[in-house]
Amino acid sequence: AQSVTQPDIHITVSEGASLELRCNYSYGATPYLFWYVQSPGQGLQLLLKYFSGDTLVQGIKGFEAEFKRSQSSFNLRKPSVHWSDAAEYFCAVAGNQGGKLIFGQGTELSVKP
Amino acid sequence: NADVMQNPRHLVRRRGQEARLRCSPMKGHSHVYWYRQLPEEGLKFMVYLQKENIIDESGMPKERFSAEFPKEGPSILRIQQVVRGDSAAYFCASSPGKEQPQHFGDGTRLSIL
Question: How far apart are CA A107 and CA B74, in angstroms?
Fold first, then answer.
């Protein structure tokens, strides 16, 4: 069965520092992978996606993620965090024919001034 | 995320009443997904519909919950005889195809008194 693990429930970083949010997945083949961000009281906004091809994908708001098949990981990175990045981040996986998303538990990001 | 319209944004019901949640997908999107976010939990898939057809309902509770996506009009998630445990945020997402990224609405927050 497909599953997604986000090991870090809560991360705090200083503004301007770099960020890496971890995501590990379990799936028999290469899945479709996504990162979404959710601000309080809002829906989810798609940051980036990986379907195939280049394993380093660029997204919106300066985020990027790298697919590592050998580690079953799809970690999200940003070189310099802004206070407005404080939110909850969800990694998700879908089968390689699309359809329903399986989400991780989420990582809440706090940004210190 | 206003392009996927969910209403109402907040819904209060007493135990035993019915709750109807509506979702209008983005223009051109014929695939609709419903997810539920319980307090302190991540998002869980409920049901996937494509115009008039239920494609995957593997996440739907067996009783009291139903969903439809008629030829005309929004998708409806219906919860009969609500109980306290139904209190959650319910999110709708839409996509133009099964293999395309899903775009989320801002959700309906359901509270059961």
Answer: 32
3-class DSSP state for residue A71? helix
Do A101 and B35 count as a contact with CB atoms less than 8 A apart? yes
Contact B75/B10 with Cβ under 8 angstroms? no
- Contact, A44 vs B91, CB < 8 A? yes
Q: Which residue has the tokens 């206070």?
A: A83
Q: How far is the alpha carbon of A35 from chain B, nearest alpha carbon, in Å?
A: 11
User: Cα–Cα distance between A12 and B94 in angstroms, integer?
Assistant: 32
Unique residue bearing structure tokens 């009783």: B63
Nearest C-alpha neighbor of A89 from the set A55, A32, A47, A60: A47
Q: Where are the beta strands (DSSP E) in chain B?
A: 5-7, 10-13, 19-24, 31-37, 43-50, 53-56, 65-68, 75-79, 88-95, 103-104, 108-112
Q: Residue A10: count other Cβ atoms within 10 Å of its Cβ.
A: 10
**Which residues, 6 or more positions from B106, have their beta carbon under 8 angstroms from its beta carbon?**
A41, A42, A43, B1, B2, B6, B9
Chain B CB contacts of A100 below 8 Å: 33, 45, 48, 56, 58-59
How do the pLDDT tens digits run along chain B, 113 residues long?
A: 458 999 999 999 999 999 999 999 999 899 999 999 987 778 999 999 998 899 999 999 999 999 999 988 999 999 999 999 999 999 999 999 888 899 999 999 999 99
